[in-house]
Amino acid sequence: MSEVSLETIVSLAKRRGFVFPSSDIYGGLAGFYDYGPYGTQLAKNIRDLWWQHFVEKVPNIHGLDSAIIQNPKLWEASGHVAGFNDPLVDCKNCQARHRADHLAGVDSTDLKKLDELIKDKPCPKCGQKGHFTEARTYNMMMKTYVGPVEDNENVAYLRPETAGSIFTNFELVRETTRAKIPFGIAQIGKAFRNEISPRDFIFRTRELEQMEMQYFVDPKNETEEYENLRKFNWNFCIEAMGFDEANLQWHEHTEDERAHYARAAHDIQFKFPFGFKELWGTHNRSDFDLTAHGKASGKELNYFDPETEKSYVPFVMESSVGVGRIFLAALVDSYAEEDVEGEKRVVLRINPKLAPVNVAILPLMKKPELAGKAKEIYTMLNQSTNLRIEYDETGSIGKRYRRQDEIGTPKAVTVDFDTLENDDVTIRDRDTMEQKRVKITDLAKELSNDS
Q: Which of 338, 279, 348, 273 is nearest to 38 (CA)?
């Protein structure tokens, strides 16, 4: 991986249609982004890959798609209404608001400790030192109302995480699937957090998408199941996503960093342009969630073990990763710059399974006979393969190669005048730029084998 700045990634993402500022023509809105044509496909490919590995290929893990707005009692029982807080300070000089823990550079909610650590820090906006208010807590839940009357009786919240409804659906999923411990429930969906200071592009946003799996286990097996899940998450990053292992590391949460209910917590950190930061969380949530929701709802969320004929509250092993963060990691991990005959070539060496486009069909020139043959091949491949194929005839062939390199297209098929005579084409490899001639009759098989 080439060392790359965040500004370079942001520029590439907008220029090549991966990510746009939301409502860009109106100046955008902090903490919100729109995914463009290639970003939409890349995000879908990431979700599909995760779903295959965490649901479809794993026995006894079941999917869920719950509502974004839930009964507010759920968030009271989970502790979010009272405790989903970040430490907030204001700059007295410019009135800018900041997260105190970010200014201090520590993961802490101890307000007195944070006040001490930031007392001589400069304001990121105006540069003044020692001009912050005392740290105070700020709840990140996004509030709305259900029904025609906007009063306290009708308050609801946009969910701050997807895990909550997994716990409240525990018994329904168990009954309908006849699942036995251990089993998991997985969900992909939007969550909303009113961040004080969203930053670092799509790394920290106010609207995000999570991929979470909660695995319910016998408490006596908690250590073994937790370590198995950690290994599973790590292997997904290396083997499925194709990340360079040098860009990954583990961070174990200290007692101060862990949530009060967590018996263990580890993050897979990725080397983003702004340093190693959290990519993927693995947590032993103990029996906190099912106990809390059972108590609040008046319904016991126990599991009866038919072998021992005893009931217990299962422990929960959590796997949680944001689509935006792993999307950003994929761009950073695959980005490379090379010198080719005195010119800079930018290429995304992204996993071919994730690439927004698998194959580009390119007539050598915009001549009717070449374009016509290229479109025939495009149609043939669309009908005979499951490849994601793009046709492009605009600009010189060199510029079109560079464009496909920048969006990470693994293979480019060029239709030239020899094609009209010999019924063969040139396949160009993204990573090596090597080219070879292949008969059109063998093209579908050749490209499918490479993808």
A: 348
Query: Which whole-number Å values give the CA distances from 131 to 98, 121, 126, 283, in the listed order?
Result: 12, 9, 10, 37
Handedness of CA 375, 377, 382, 387 (dihedral sign): negative
Q: Give dist(CA 221, CA 305) in Å, integer.
A: 14
- Please give the single-letter amino acid code of residue 118: I
User: Which residue's structure tokens are 């009708």?
Assistant: 154
Is residue 248 within 8 Å of residue 270, measured between CB atoms? yes
Instruction: Categorise residue 46: left if φ over 0, alpha if ψ from -120 to 50, beta otherwise.
Output: alpha
Secondary structure (DSSP) of 319-373: EEEEHHHHHHHHHHHHEEEEEETTEEEEEE---TTT-S-SEEEEESSS-HHHHHH
SS3 (DSSP) at 300? coil
Are 387 and 446 in contact by the 8 Å Cβ rule? The answer is no
Is pLDDT above 70 for 37? yes
Share of the chain above pLDDT 70, in %: 99
**Degrees, nearest 5: CA angle 55-183-165:** 80
Residues in the chain: 451
Q: Is the dihedral of CA 225, 231, 237, 239 positive or negative?
A: negative
pTM across the whole model = 0.92
Residue found by looking up tokens 């009931």 in the block: 311
pLDDT on residue 449:
82
What 302-306 contacts at long range (C-beta under 8 Å, 24+ apart), as own/partner pairs, is 303/174, 303/181, 303/216, 305/181, 305/218, 306/180
8: Cα within 13 Å, side-chain hemisphere: 16
**Residues sharing a CB contact under 8 Å with residue 357, sequence separation 6 or more, in sequence order:** 38, 41, 388, 389, 390, 404, 407, 408, 409
Tokens of 329: 């990691």
Which residue has tokens 């979470």? 212
Nearest to 419 by CA among 381, 385, 377: 377
Q: Is the pLDDT of residue 45 over 90?
A: yes
Residues 354, 232, 255, CA angle at the centre, nearest 5°? 120
- Report which secondary-structure segment, H or E, holds 168: helix 163-168
∠ CA 89-92-96, nearest 5°, is 60
Cβ proximity of 440 and 414 under 8 Å? no
